[in-house]
Amino acid sequence: MKFSIGDKILLKQTDEEGVVTGYINTEMMEVEVGGVTFPVHVDEIDHPYLKWFTEKKKMPAKKVVPEQLPVEKQKLRKPRLPKGVYLSFMPEYKLEEMEDVVDILKIYLLNETGRSVQFRYEQTLRNEVAFSHEGKLHEFGHVYLHSIAYEQMNDQPRFNWWLDDVQNPELSPANGTVRIKPQKLFQHIDELLTKNEPSFNYLLIEDFKIKVPETSTEVANDKFQNLNTNTRNQKSTIKDPKSKPFDFSPDKIDLHIENLVDNTRGMSNTDIILIQLAALKDHLRMAIRNKQQRLIIVHGLGKGKLRDEVHKVLSETFEVKDYNNDWHAGYGFGATEVWFEY
Questions:
Q1: Are residues 230 and 296 in the same domain?
Q2: If 253 and its partner were Cys, which of 109, 233, 283, 336 is the partner (CB 3.0–4.6 Å)?
Q3: Within-domain flag for 72
Q4: pLDDT class for 46, splitting at 50, 70, 90?
Q5: Average pLDDT of the residues in 265-276
């Protein structure tokens, strides 16, 4: 007999191992496989020894502990906003008379650029600093600054900011001020509720600008204070502010270049606009020192370059409460009216 009771067998069809438990006849045997007993034909089973000797036993792979664990690569998250640095306002609500109303605004600084930036921030109210903070913000990171009570926004606080890329000296620092009028704030909150969004954002800069070599505000002031020669060695002097026809009224400044210098021969367009801006800044300093409430800046129409530069200076001047370029009876759209706040 090929098999005896107790012998281990191998089912040829399923490759399962079992044990012979009894004889049925010369062609049939009873086997137990996995706790189940059943009859099989002798031709359907075989000894498992051949399989044991021919199969290579799989040895468990030896674990090798590296001397130093690999550093996981930092995954840059996708920016939520277009490229730039933003001041973000997130309202928190409270239940009042069965209705959710804004209680406070949480303020964040968001860096949606691929470079680290150095920042300085301060929030002022009635010309007094209520909060200030400075630090470094890594790429695609954000930092919580502070909270402000919603009712304080009626006083139009100023959110002043300074940004700098300290790793690249060829890039120029940037600064500015964010102010939100009550009507604009209501509009922001209404849009958040309509769109079911958590916050509204103000873009501070898209990216840092390359520093302009040589030409600077100091150069412009030098030209404004002492423009004695030009490229043709022709004398060009600034008109006496007290003389006619130069209009140096405290309530108005006319930035047309003919009111600032005797002639413009040898000057480039950049030279001219720098002189105009230097004159504007001097006049603004005088107006603020005298606590003026209002000022008219005559810049003309042209292509709008001077107007845009004037508005940029005004937006960066803390004492300027508001300004507009609406139609004026005396100057049309060629002047900007400014109101101050102290």
A1: yes
A2: 283
A3: no
A4: confident
A5: 88
